[in-house]
Automatic annotation (TrEMBL):
Its cofactor is Mg(2+). Catalyzes the phosphorylation of D-fructose 6-phosphate to fructose 1,6-bisphosphate by ATP, the first committing step of glycolysis. GO terms for biological process: canonical glycolysis; fructose 1,6-bisphosphate metabolic process; fructose 6-phosphate metabolic process. The gene is pfkA. It comes from the Bacteria. Residues 2-297 form the Phosphofructokinase domain. This is ATP-dependent 6-phosphofructokinase. GO terms for cellular component: 6-phosphofructokinase complex. It is found in: Cytoplasm.
Length: 343
């Protein structure tokens, strides 16, 4: 078979590991040929691709980002998009199937195209870990490790100056990064999109810690909505897709804490540093296993299916299972962490 791969949406550590394992498994086990579409759906729509040989993917498992490039190109709204044009491109270039690596939006496009008759399988990807039908996604563990390391560093400088430190992390609708990195770093408050918390409560936690001579650490997800507010803070305009560009909640929380408590407070926004760099060992292994399973699905002609992690097993699920709402932090998980706030 001649198989295409594409990476779409936000980048994350582990994409290259999927590409590597899929290509090596396909060549060694099935005698397949591979192409990689450049910059997501755009590459498929415009037939802009590169040949992927064993040489091209050598050593990729440890490399962050994606060698194929990525974009938020819409598979239907982009000029020349839609299933009819894509089917023509696949036929014209003798491509038998496409492995699609992406998050909720990308996989929704893949499902829609599969329903229109295109041969596609999905690989779930997001640092936010907010996709249903899989216990974890690659990129999440790396983001947690990066954020935890940054918070450990903030703790030491905060202790030196007797300051409260606020760390803003990614998480538009789900607070998994904030929750896990906050717990790992021993944060004294974690603020996530799923849970409304008043600034009076946050300040109470901060003052409890400061009164013991410690430097409080507050972790806030970019999509956190304070009690009394209507929506997440988005003072940086819109992305090209029209989606609000979140960011700035860390600065707002910092100003509120300093004003209400009088405690000197500083903010650090980690931003895209959470997406960058080399993947952790866990993410390399998970991504590698996903790539191998995805190739098996292609040869089973399991179109419209997606690889998934259940416990420690790699299984297949229907793409619809990943698109039935976001996987958000359950109330009991937040309450579990909340036991250690303040005090």
């Amino acid at each position: 078979m001649r198989i295409g791969l594409l990476t779409s949406g936000g980048d994350c550590p582990g994409l290259n590991a999927v590409i590597r394992s899929a290509v090596l498994h396909g060549i060694k086990s099935y005698g397949d040929e591979f192409v990689g579409f450049r910059d997501g759906w755009r590459g498929l729509i415009e037939a802009d691709y590169m040949e992927l040989s064993r040489h091209n993917v050598r050593g990729l498992s440890r490399v962050g980002g994606t060698i194929l490039g990525t974009s938020r190109t819409h598979p239907y709204n982009y000029p020349g998009g839609g299933p009819q044009n894509m089917a023509k491109q696949l036929k014209r270039h003798d491509i038998d199937a496409v492995v699609v690596l992406g998050g909720e939006g990308t996989l929704a496009g893949a499902k829609r195209l599969t329903n229109a008759g295109l041969p596609m399988v999905g690989v779930p990807k997001t640092i936010d870990n907010d996709l249903n039908a899989t216990d974890f996604t690659f990129g999440f563990d790396t983001a947690i490790s990066i954020a935890t390391d940054a918070m450990d560093r903030l703790r030491t400088t905060g202790e030196s100056h007797h300051r409260c430190m606020v760390a803003e992390v990614m998480g538009r609708h789900a607070g998994w990064i904030a929750l896990h990195s906050g717990m790992a770093a021993g944060a004294h408050a974690v603020l996530i999109p799923e849970k409304r918390v008043s600034m009076d409560q946050v300040c109470e936690w901060v003052e409890q810690v400061h009164s013991r001579g410690r430097s409080p650490l507050v972790v806030v997800a970019e999509g956190f909505i304070p009690d009394g507010a209507e929506e997440a803070l988005a003072e940086k305009g819109e992305e090209a897709s029209g989606r609000p560009r979140l960011g700035g909640i860390g600065e707002w929380v910092t100003a509120q804490i300093e004003e209400l408590t009088g405690i000197e407070t500083r903010n650090t926004t980690l931003g895209h540093i959470q997406r960058g760099g080399n993947p952790t060992g866990y993410d390399r292994v998970l991504a590698t296993r996903f790539g191998i399973k995805a190739l098996n699905l292609v040869h089973e002609q399991a179109w419209g299916r997606m690889v998934s992690l259940r416990g420690t097993d790699i299984v297949e699920v229907d793409l619809n299972a990943a698109l039935e709402g976001l996987k958000t932090v359950p109330a009991e998980r937040y309450e579990e962490a909340k036991v250690l706030f303040g005090r």
